[in-house]
Write a structure and sequence with these properties.
By secondary structure, the chain is an all-beta fold. The protein folds into two domains: about 110 residues, Jelly Rolls, CATH 2.60.120.10; about 70 residues, Jelly Rolls, CATH 2.60.120. About 0% of the residues lie in helices and about 55% in strands. It is built from no helices and 19 strands. Strands 2-3-4-11-6-9 form a six-stranded antiparallel beta sheet, with no helix packed on it. It has a five-stranded antiparallel beta sheet with strand order 1-17-14-19-12, with no helix packed on it. It is globular, with a radius of gyration of 16 Å. It starts with a strand and ends with a strand. The relative contact order is 0.22.
Length: about 180
């Protein structure tokens, strides 16, 4: 299990200058041919996403105004806070910002190797997938093992079941479990 604070994760600027990414984890590490990858991206202006053939993506709006994702005839979808949206990375997708910058949580999985299911939790739960996953605290305080996690903190793992305990009366946690094919 690895813990992170998104404020301490290194920032990489996009080639097109329209945003930046904080890569949280990648398996295998430091490769473009990943099985799965998690990151948080800031979108500074409208523009096209990079294409990722054979990759499925799940994006969740964390901060900022609504973002419209337009893939032409394939789909047109408006991202709303804390509502994961899945789409194929093969599509040419243009992001249209409605009100300034946005910050988004992204999970990418190689379609032939694994799948990601992204959800929002608001109560104590135990993960099911033994092959990997990631959590990111949206609000409240959460206990994971002997570690206390607060907003903008999280953890990722490659195997095992884990119990996440909500310590306050209210809180939200974004989590993804990875299942290998």
């Amino acid at each position: 299990m690895e813990f992170f604070d998104i404020r301490k994760v290194p920032v990489s600027l996009w080639r097109n200058g329209a945003g930046e990414t904080r890569e949280i984890c990648c398996f295998p590490p430091a490769t473009r041919d990943f099985n799965w990858r998690a990151s948080i991206a800031s979108i500074a202006s409208s523009g096209e996403f990079s294409a990722f053939p054979q990759v499925d993506r799940v994006i969740t709006l964390l901060e900022g105004g609504e973002v419209v994702l337009d893939a032409g005839k394939a789909f047109r979808h408006t991202l709303k806070h804390f509502q994961p949206f899945a789409f194929a990375g093969d599509y040419t997708v243009k992001a249209e910002l409605k009100q300034g910058m946005s910050m988004d949580f992204n999970i990418m999985t190689h379609r032939d190797r694994c799948r990601a299911k992204v959800r929002v939790a608001d109560r104590t739960f135990t993960t099911f997938a033994p092959r990997g996953g990631i959590i990111y605290v949206l609000s409240g305080e959460w206990q994971l093992g002997d570690k206390l996690l607060k907003p903008e903190q999280g953890a990722w793992w490659q195997e095992g079941r884990h119990t996440l305990r909500l310590l306050k009366t209210e809180g939200k946690l974004l989590f993804s479990e990875i299942t290998y094919l």
